[in-house]
Write a structure and sequence with these properties.
Layout lengths: L23 E2 L11 H4 L8 E2 H18 L9 H10 L12 H10 L12 H18 L1
Length: 140
């Protein structure tokens, strides 16, 4: 949180500044639970993946975690986790009420096929996350 109570979501361990939406990502660096299927699919590996779509997936995982307190896919080992990311459908906790709009957004951000993944304007994403943080700040 900064001096104005703005949340900063960042993991700079494997960061790269993109010069355009067309920049590509090579390899599967980063926090395992936040990596998209195209980077962890051992049967059909992506040698160079579109970076902006990798980021949309990671933001979807982050939003899911903020809403439900856990990441959408888990596994006892890294290999099981990766297999679950690739093969398991997205599901939502039964004990929490989730709006259809929220489910729709998460399903689009966490779409397994990168070419079908929801490509959002980054300013809209930043604005949306600021609203979510405000809601949590007021509720907390």
């Amino acid at each position: 949180m900064d001096a104005n109570d703005n949340a900063k979501l960042v993991d700079l361990g494997e960061s790269v500044e993109f010069q355009s939406d067309e920049m590509l990502v090579k390899g599967s660096k980063g926090t395992p639970g936040f990596l998209p299927p195209e980077l962890v699919d051992m049967e059909n590996p992506c040698e160079e993946c579109k970076g902006v779509l990798v980021d949309i997936w990671a933001l979807g995982v982050t939003l899911y975690g903020m809403l439900f307190g856990d990441i959408p896919f888990n596994g006892e080992t890294k290999m099981i986790l990766y297999d679950n990311i690739v093969k398991d459908p997205l599901s939502f906790p039964d004990n929490m009420e989730v709006s259809e709009n929220c489910k729709d957004l998460l399903n689009k951000m966490l779409e397994k096929a990168p070419e079908k993944r929801y490509l959002l304007m980054f300013s809209w994403i930043i604005y949306s996350f600021q609203l979510i943080v405000e809601i949590f700040h007021v509720a907390g």
